[in-house]
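I hope you will forgive my troubling you with a question about protein structure. I set the record out below, with my sincere thanks for your time.
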Amino acid sequence: MTMAAQTIGVLVMSYGTPESLDQIEPYYTHIRRGSPPSPEQLQELTDRYKAIVGGVFPLRENTNRQVQALEETLNASASDSVRFVCYQGLKHAAPFIEDGVKQMAADGIQRAVGIVLAPHYSVMSVGGYIKRAKEEAERAGIELSCVQSYHLHPLLIEALAKRVEHALERFHSEDRNRVKVLFTAHSLPERILEMGDPYPEQLLATSRAVAERTQVSNWEFAWQSAGRTSVPWLGPDILDVLEKLHTEQVRAVLVCPVGFVSDHLEVLYDLDIEAKQTAKRLDMHLERTESLNTDPLYMQVLADAVTEQLAKG
């Protein structure tokens, strides 16, 4: 790398997670826009984290590793005239999105690309990240352009397909054609449908592409991890789908959470504990595909999206 190389900042954004058990209350207070969880809610949340990780929070560790691996992937194929430096920006925990942008400014970054560790766009998720990042970048005088989605990148489909194929091997060979594959993602409030939000269709497009790649015809889509609010959320929920499949005499289910890219609460608790408990009660064999985490294929997906966005910008 030459001394004259231009440094490009990459703001890697994600939802965030508490770093320790004592950070759960402020974390969820931030999610609830300043309203602390009740003692009962806090106890339930704490119990969920203890159930999956015993006080160690893999999402933060996974995200740190993803940011580092993306920087290495970008620089491995960069020309001598460009150097990439990745910064982390979280929605609900430090370093917040604004903190990441401020650090770029402090380091003298003038041009940057933002990308969210979520392949599918919604104005209520990725759109919110981008809005905050661009507002702070404008205040800091940084030229920032952002990746909106990468849900059909060929390497993303390949990585997910490999996981489906690998997970199907956990079922007896004679049962494979009877295995119901459920693709899942985090639910959002139903009002996004009235807004013409692309989130549901992008998720279905990813699911269809993975199903075609793996020649899986016995599949459907289910939502998970809906918020407990007064407004309706997208459904059907995976737990309700499992109940339905039970009445249809389905005995083997593979869950592929295409909307998630790393192990965290919605995967390690909502699927690995809650959904598996439901499946066990229904005498159903349930497996889950491995998360992408720092898979080199996924890192290349992110790197490609960043460099393509940089070229557009």
Observations:
- The beta strands are 6-14, 82-90, 111-116, 143-146, 180-186, 219-224, 252-256, 285-288.
- The two ends are 23 Å apart (CA to CA).
